[in-house]
Design a protein that fits this description.
This protein has 265 residues and is α/β, with parallel strands linked by helices. It has a single domain, classed as TIM Barrel. It is built from 12 helices and 10 strands. α4 packs across α5 and α4 packs parallel to α12.
Length: 265
């Protein structure tokens, strides 16, 4: 079983348990208390290379990340360091995340927030909206086309922007044909074995139609890499672990984006 398959299986079980504890109708009733809109897509369309700064507690490849850190501490540092948006990893079994982390980020930061998770069910979309997300991630490799199309439409109906993640040319062709998304994320990490190759962004970029907002994800940890991404036409990068290695993540952001010199911890 691949890493992705294992995560999807645990996600299906977790969603079923949450739905049993809080039925969809009761969850939807909480949508009326949703806060003001913070357009995620617009934040990435500003001039220059935007950074989506990610908070995550652990990962299957890296293990525990920044032990003892709090959401409040990290996301306020990200905002101070100039991030355009936040990504909050909410998957629990493999990444240690939660919707509480997302709601906390919403309460302490004015930046738009992406719910980073393995979305396979409408229930998760409503959860995201209730918790304060402005956007969700849909992973092409995790969904069959009918489910992908349905979730994309349902997210839009909930006023959630959608970052569509692809990993290879076949996935890119499929999502362009299915929904023609405005936001396309190229994951440099292979979710089957979690290997990373930044060249994936370069190889797929030429196949993305003009006018799309392109996000490069995973494996970016040097200023030179970001400069190269901006040079070839990438609009934004999603960075997590390398920023969390700094005593003050704001320093990491400023270093990667051309601010003052700093060293990771």
């Amino acid at each position: 079983m691949t890493v992705l398959a294992r995560i999807l299986a645990s996600t299906e079980q977790a969603v079923a348990q949450r739905r049993e504890q809080l039925p969809l109708a009761q969850l939807e009733a909480q949508l009326h208390g949703r806060g003001p809109d913070r357009p995620f897509a617009e934040a990435l369309a500003r001039p220059g290379l935007s950074v989506i700064a990610e908070f995550k507690r652990r990962s299957p490849s890296a293990g525990e990340i920044r032990p003892g850190s709090t959401v409040e501490e990290v996301v306020t540092a990200y905002e101070r360091g100039g991030a355009a948006a936040l990504s909050i990893l909410t998957e629990e079994a493999n990444f240690g995340g939660s919707l509480v982390d997302l709601a906390t980020a919403r309460s302490v930061s004015d930046l738009p927030i992406l719910r980073k998770d393995f979305i396979i069910d409408h229930y998760q979309l409503v959860e995201a909206a209730v918790a304060g997300a402005d956007a969700i991630l849909l992973i092409a490799a995790a969904l069959e086309r009918p489910e992908f199309e349905s979730l994309y439409r349902e997210a839009a109906a909930l006023d959630l922007d959608v970052l569509v993640e692809v990993h290879d040319e076949q996935e890119l062709d499929a999502v362009l044909e299915a929904v023609d998304p405005d936001l396309i994320g190229i994951n440099n990490r292979d979710l089957r074995d979690f290997s990373v190759d930044v060249e994936r962004t370069h190889s797929l970029l030429a196949d993305i139609p003009a006018g799309k907002t392109v996000v490069s994800e995973s494996g970016l940890h040097e200023r030179a890499q970001l400069e190269e991404m901006e040079r070839v036409g990438v609009d934004a990068v999603l960075i997590g672990a390398s920023l969390l290695a700094f005593p003050d993540p704001a320093d990491g952001l400023e270093l990667l984006t051309g601010g003052h010199d700093a060293e990771p911890g």
